[in-house]
Amino acid sequence: MSSLRSFQRSSNLARNAVKSVRTYATAEPTLKQRLDELIPEKAEEVKQFKKEYGKTVIGEVLLEQAYGGMRGIKGLVWEGSVLDPIEGIRFRGRTIPDIQKELPKAPGGSEPLPEALFWLLLTGEVPTDAQTKAFSEELAARSELPKHVEDLIDRSPAHLHPMAQFSIAVTALESESEFAKAYAKGVNKKDYWKYTYEDSISLLAKLPVIAAKIYRNVFKDGKLPTKVDGKLDYGANLANLLGFENPEFLELMRLYLTIHSDHEGGNVSAHTTHLVGSALSSPMLSLAAGLNGLAGPLHGRANQEVLEWLFKMREELQGNYSKENIEKYLWETLNAGRVVPGYGHAVLRKTDPRYTAQREFALKHMPDYELFKLVSNIYEVAPGVLTKQGKTKNPWPNVDSHSGVLLQYYGLTEESFYTVLFGVARAFGVLPQLILDRGVGMPIERPKSFSTEKYIELVKNIKANN
Question: Which Pfam families does the record associate with it (predicted)?
Answer without folding.
Answer: Citrate_synt (PF00285)
